[in-house]
Amino acid sequence: MMKEGEVRIPSGCAICGIFSRDGSQICGDRIAHAIALMHNRSNGLGGGFAGYGIYPQYRDHYALHIFYDSLKSREETERFLDSHFDIINLSKIPVRQTDQITDPPLIWRYFVSPLVHKIQDSQLEENEYTARCMIRINNLIEGAYVFSCGKNMGVFKAVGYPEDVARFYRLEDYSGYAWTAHGRYPTNTPGWWGGAHPFALLDLSVVHNGEISSYDANRRAVEMYDYKCNLLTDTEVITYILDYLTRKEKLTLEECANVIAAPFWSTIALKDGQEAARLAYLRKMYSSFLITGPFSILVGFTGGMMALNDRLKLRSLVVGEKGRTVYFSSEEAAIRAVEPELDRIWAPAGGQPVIVTLDEGVRI
Amino acid sequence: MNLIPSRYRINLRKEECIQCRRCTRECSFHAIEFRGGLVFNHEKCVDCQRCVAMCPRDALYITKNENRFACHAVYSTEALKEIYRQSEAGGVLLSSMGSPGRTVPIYFDHLLLNASQVTNPSIDPLREPMETRTFIGRRPEHVERDEVGRLIDNLPPHLELQTPIMFSAMSYGAVSLNVQRALAMAAARTGTCFNCGEGGLHESLYQYAANTIVQVASGRFGVHETYLNSASAIEIKIGQGAKPGIGGHLTGAKIIGDVSKTRMVPEGIDAISPAPHHDIYSIEDLRQLVSSLKEATGYRKPVIVKVAAVHNIAPIASGIARSGADIITIDGFRGGTGAAPMRIRDNVGLPIELAIAAVDQRLRDEKIRDRVSVIASGGIRNSTDVVKAIALGADAVSVGTAALCALGCHLCASCHSGSCAWGIATQKPELVDRLDPEEGAERLCNLISAWTSEIKEIMGGMGINSIEALRGNRLALRAVGLNSRELAVLGVKYGGE
Amino acid sequence: MSVQVNASQVDERTLKDLIESESNIEVTGCLGQRYLGVARKCGQLRITGTPGNGLASYLDGGEIYVHGNVQDAVADTMNDGFLAVDGNAGDALCYAMRGGRVFIRGNAGYRAGVHMKAYRERQSILVIGGRAGSFLGEYLAGGTIAVLGLDCPAGSQLTGYFCANGMYAGSIYLRTTARPVGLSDKLSCHLMDGEEKKAKLEGLIRDYASAFSLDAQQILSGPFLSIEADPHKSYRQLYATL
To answer: Which of A52, A283, B293, B402, by CA, is between 20 and 30 Å from A356?
Structure first.
């Protein structure tokens, strides 16, 4: 059977997220507890987490999380890393043996900084240089797969139910100011850890629920801009689109939402002149990045999080607030599982992004 | 010595005929006459079906002449007739309408569409929003912002279409003014564009400027400042699918009255469109023409460059995209024409499906697909052809033949005779009057809205509710009955993959 | 006297078996348990907490009271009975509901009352106290939907976009003077006069008000818009036969 990436596998899912605006530390077991409540929405074929602010001691270095199929792929990758980065620290990611998680690849973590002279030679800025190096490893080194490469953040994912994945990765040993989580319900047996979510590039991570109908139009569009969709998953293409729009086109997240979940023309016509013109401009300018079909996504990035539904709101998504902490989830019960008494809970409308960021002055 | 038997037989159900002689008046080819009784000149019949449609008793029917030549596997009856005809007349074989294709596959018929089941919902277009509005034009590389960070609208002018179907270029001269009038009215009512072709724009059509594309072809007939500014876009015609590399020739017999006035050429004198634009011998010259047209119209109108689908269409399109043009029209092998040398029509160029797939992919490989829009034309027969063309990579399509059929054309391919019994491809006043522009406009509107409804239904089935999410969405397609080279060029997977 | 159970202390299967076997039962501490009260025919079920998706699907009789918010796909294909929620509802509330009554004290999400219908003596009724999301009453084929905008300023929009698209029977009542934006031209919409309100709404509103201890008269005193399908406009002209 073909591996994920050789064939496109649609999937349904559960997502949730926790964000603390005041930067207070959230332990990884909290997000695991929340996503576990939505066990029924996944089928044990993929679960994962992204934590932000979890590596403060290495905050200025890129934290690489890499799956290896073999020692050979590890050696080859490390040779590549050695010649492109200064490796500050490397180790296996500590895991707990559990019956539920089987057949793990080798899982390694590196804290690195790009070699200064290499960046200069490449004439790229640091992020672009690192992103290209990671895409190169994933494309060219057989059996190696970088699944996390941001600063002071990390992705943990596996084939299994999310709560089992959390136990496996000892998520209770990490804490940060933000977490996202994903439980996957693929319609096929991918059997490959790289296909689990979150999907991340640099510090941008995406968890996603739904199957988009515009997939190939979006994929072929974003591949024009030096991205290569290896996994053929919606989450991957959404991540690349958001990376392109925010990092390369310098759009704000709200503008990104207006592009990928653009309002209907009939809705734009109801807006006042200036706003209508702005929305129409974005829709025309980036029409290739309109995403149709059901999706709800949580986008994590350094210092913030965005939740967004497709413009028809074909997937559920609720937002809860308690003090300075914000919760996002496919189902309200998952939020109440970790915070029974909320100040406020609401369901954002389709295409309406909810963006939260750290309070001013918070150091992470 | 006449070696060519008639192609068709006119047949009468005698018991039905009431001798009203309507057919003799309707036949503009003089194939039916009354001399004491109905007389059939079978050799003159072109199978235009006018008599059949107009007979009040349904008494007439046309059949193929069943006579056949010796069955020869290499020299078919048609091949022999062509030799006889040329040995008799000594000229280039002339034909019209699109290539019948014969052995060239119609790829559209080998492509099947997708639909949603379970993992994402299909959409009912009657009740849920379903968008076919299409903007075509150029897009800048990046956004720009003002000093306070607000987005600046740096988009060049776009054509706004309510549905991704336009009417292809058909010139006044090749078709009658009533045809153009019907097309213009229908375009205005359905929110799309008609294209006046290369014969100028009759003054009475200036009122439809918002739905008009004016053409600038090698002959530059009727091109002047007012003409250029009486349109929402300007199309530079480099070539057309029915006759790539070939110019045009409107005989003096058709240059009469308003045709002469609109083309701004004297009555009765042939109007020749040179094969190339003699001010464009290379791609940088194209840039010059694009720029001069933009200068002449104050950069308020998008400029389209129309080319025939030829073998190296992908790099040609890439060159056009870099010439400053906003939109590229690719006209395929099966595109229609009022007159073309038959050998050219049937042997030069590529089917639109291959061309559009190759162009779309090349523009992506060069990272410029989002900079320009691409229109596919030439052999778009129905709404599924539209959907497939867009999924292969077109922004929109244009239709000529189908529009003429809506007006009564039966594809007898005798346009070049100038005697069109349906009042379409003729300038003879008594024939022109046969086409009521108001009725024609209504039929065209019906066709466009019926196709649009079908497109919405198909998109809804796929769970796509906006046309831009269909553009280039090749996973919406699967192929059957094609080989792996064809799959590779089309960029589609085989059924079941 | 009803049986009481704390949902957090039993597993989901036990909880469901218990609900099925007891005609009067009170569940507390509910958190995400799905399909509670599915196809129940009689008796009273009281729930405190946040029940999971699919609550009261195929409900066929009896009464369910929820103190808290409910999630998605509640009262799906409900046939008869009564559900009152003292909170908000998620998406796809009352999909294809055929009979019985559903009262929501707060807001409803997207796609409430899609393809609700009526058949003979069965008349589906959905009353939403607050606002409803987009696609309210899409494809409505029968029954009654009322949206009351109880805590909204006068003249507010009570629904999202695309309200009642494709509706072909039944009635939608909105307690506001603001017509939904972009209402289909295949629908008629008018402001009800006192007599019409009395005839069509009084009983309904009294029931609703008593379920949540509200003042019926005060609710009825507000303006109501009535939306119905225009019988002269069908979708037939879309088709051409060969």
So the answer is: A283
